[in-house]
Amino acid sequence: MLSKRVQVFVFASIKNFFKEETMKVKLIVAALLFCFCMGISFNSSADEAKFGIKGSDTIKNVLEGYTGKMVIVRLNSGAELQGIVTKVGNVVVHLSKISTRDYYDAVVKIDTISAVLVKVRNK
Question: Residue 51: which residues within 8 A CB-CB, separation 6 or more?
């Protein structure tokens, strides 16, 4: 059995250890939370894509600019297809991973496309 003085010392040491550890944990959590929040604010502005067209742009030029990215093409008939622009030819565009059809790709005649919709911001 430990003496009363040793017991008090051990108890005080343990209490201080956990008190200091709690403070360290709080500081670490606060620092991580701050970094996380700053990362989100920086990324949200960085994720906003630049979107613009030139006077001579065509549907084909716009699609070429979004090769490898997700777009929605609206056809002259009013139908819409969402997919990733894989390749743009002179007459057709290849869209892969069509959103409404698993395991399907599409080849669309460029002259049947009336609009290209692209996501440029998250909010």
Answer: 118, 120
Give the tens place of pLDDT for each residue, 16-58.
Answer: 655 655 666 655 655 655 555 566 544 444 545 566 777 888 8
The number of beta carbons lying within 10 Å of the beta carbon of residue 107 is: 12
Q: Note the pTM of the prediction, 2 decimals.
A: 0.58
CA distances (Å), 60 to each of 25, 50, 67, 93, in order?
55, 18, 11, 8
Tell me the two tokens of residue 1.
Answer: 């059995």
Q: What is the C-alpha separation between 81 and 116, in angstroms, rounded?
A: 10
Residue range 92-109, pLDDT digits in tens: 999 999 988 888 889 999
Neighbours of 64 (CB within 10 A): 14
